[in-house]
Amino acid sequence: MKSSFLKKWACLLSIVSLLVSLTAPAVFAKENRGAQNALRAPLPPREMSDDESTKMILKYPPRILFLQWGAILDKQEPATGTVNVTDTANVTDWSGYVEVSKGALKIVKKVRFESNDTASVAKLEDGRPGRVAWTSTISGGQDGLVLLFGAPNDATFTISTPYLGVQTFSVTDLVKGYHQKGIDVNQDSVADDYDFKAIVQSPFASKNQLFQHPELLEITVGCFAKDKNTCLGFDNSRTYSMTVSISGQGVELIAKPLRMEKNTDSIVSEKSGQVITSEFVVGPFSDGITARVQKTENFDEEDISESRAITVTVKEGEAVVFEKTFAKGDEFGQFPLSNNSGHSFMILNRLKGIQGLEQSEQDKYLAMKENFSTKLARLSENVDALLRNGTITSDTAVSFTNFIDELRNYNWDETVAGDVDNMLKNLHALLKNSRVKFAAFQSGLEEGKKQQSELRVRAQSAKYQKKLIPFRDVDDSAWFISDVQTMADKNIVSGYSDSSGKSLGEFRPANTVTKAEVLKMVLNTLGKEIRTSGAIQHTKAESHWAKDYVRTAEGLGLTLVSDSNVDLDSAVSRGDVIRSIFESMGVTPPAVSKTRFSDVTSANNNASYIEYAAELGVISGDGDVNGNLTGTFRPNDSLNRAEVSKILNNVMALTGTPM
User: Do 645 and 493 meet the contact criterion of CB atoms below 8 Å apart?
Assistant: First the structure.
């Protein structure tokens, strides 16, 4: 098992040097294109072999440490002219070392090192490859190193150069630079002419997202829409206790009960702190809490980037039936309990998808969500009573609770909040009457569904106008909202335009992706320089809007354009998309005799690429209606724009978001 684990990680680390090509150019500003191309050139895979350094690094989450010194010409902060980058008379010595107190270091790249410059890894007294020493002379230019390291968060770096002296920085200090342009370790070195920068990045960015938006969590146990055929019924009532705790600097929970009956359930209303405990009896539906993750006075947005974690433990009596810790960046969702009751645990962030909110807007949405959650809980209790007294059937109850779930899941804009509130009040007034007739109930349900549809259209239009969603046809309740938002933020996608070039504000997520579109999306995602001149082999591309992307793809040797007559406007297959991604990165996976997908055999031309993507977590394959993997991938089927956005966001999470 241990050997298999190391092989798996060694396989992943074999492309770290390739991943650096996507992030390093933005960290190390270049003085000429040749230096930039040299930085992007990948190391041979053998350089990342399973040696002792790699083994020690793999004991911890691997990260990348960028070091740069000299006349740093930052793209966002251009040089003021105090440094003459062509001055060869002013030679300065920047030789030095970096040492990590715990863990290990490995050299990935030497950036702009001249022939007389050196860098090597040295072992410390305890036998760890924990020091990198270098010799470097600067004559108006700059040098740098890209290091791979594995170390715990309490480790420290000691950095020494003639103009810094000896300085110590914690891993946490350097992680603060994540998603920033860099850390100025010492801005005043050598009469303001030179800087030294250090920054830590992780190639596994999905686990290191900053705490940028509030979280309003619904944490419940019971019978949900996916489970109702197996667990709906009063004879399946169970008594549970649940403990929810949060760890991490500067955050706490504020909890309220969610659909709890007064005689069987208990929680301290508005309870605030690190740990929330509740007890409840689950009947045919679900009970739980609404928990707001709130910043405390000592909140530090940078420190929280990796520290927030929520641990939930659910017990039936003394038996633990569910326990899981959700770190920042982990996916929430629905998870079955282990007591064979058919019941599940569910945790959802009801504010997921809202982007770019100011604090005042965040507060408005939190208040609306909490208000709607309270009213929806009362509606659920009304339906519970009608089901108990025989007014409605279980099928009708399922239909109504699904309607309630849709109301709960949606982020309503404040412009329609009052109308939604009135709709909920009217439904409550109808349902609280214990003598309500089935026909009246059914009529109220149909009217509610009609109003819901109309209000969603209005809310979506208002949110697009406020730029809270990236496109008018990509709402924040969609499963792909975060992926499309990220792609739009990075100008990888811009949506559709009319004949005059004016944006229509439409992404058209369900549209099938063409070969031309996927070339643009893949090459832009990977930060490739798009060639606007030079020969082009494709016979019809010169008159096509994607001609520059085709020219670039030809230069990279992408199989997708190897046929000079290929129809650029035809649908691209799922397998070809995966192959194009890795070919653009310069990665050729090893051949495979089989894959984990039943419909992807070794005879498939893209089999090795598909298996490699699955190994790295870029794809997971198809799922059923309950979210369970089916073991298939459908390699020859087409993809829509939403699906490609998801895959490319997984690629960016793997490689580290370019800075």
Answer: yes
443: phi > 0 → left, psi -120 to 50 → alpha, else beta; which? alpha
Are the C-beta atoms of 353 and 481 separated by less than 8 Å?
Answer: yes
323 and 314 in contact (C-beta within 8 Å)?
yes
Residue with tokens 């040749």: 34
Contact 635, 573 (CB under 8 A): yes
Question: In Å, how far are 377, 381, 387, 424, 658 from 438, measured between CA atoms?
Answer: 21, 17, 11, 19, 58
For the record, the structure tokens of 208 come out as 């290191």
Checking 181-187 for CB contacts under 8 A at 24+ apart, the result is: 181/26, 181/27, 181/74, 181/76, 181/77, 181/659, 182/27, 182/66, 182/68, 182/74, 185/159
Residue 139 is given by DSSP the state S
Sheet architecture: strand order including 131-135? 118-122, 131-135, 96-100, 156-161, 165-170
Cβ contact 427:418 at 8 Å: no
Residues of the chain with pLDDT under 70: 1-55, 58-59, 61-62, 71-91, 139-140, 172-194, 201-214, 225-230, 232-236, 249, 261-263, 269-270, 297-307, 329, 351-363, 366, 433-434, 625-627, 653-659
Q: Which of 320, 441, 435 lies closest to 389, judged by CA? A: 435
How many CB atoms are closer than 10 A to CB 75?
10
Summarised one tens digit per residue, pLDDT across range 504-516 is 889 999 999 999 9
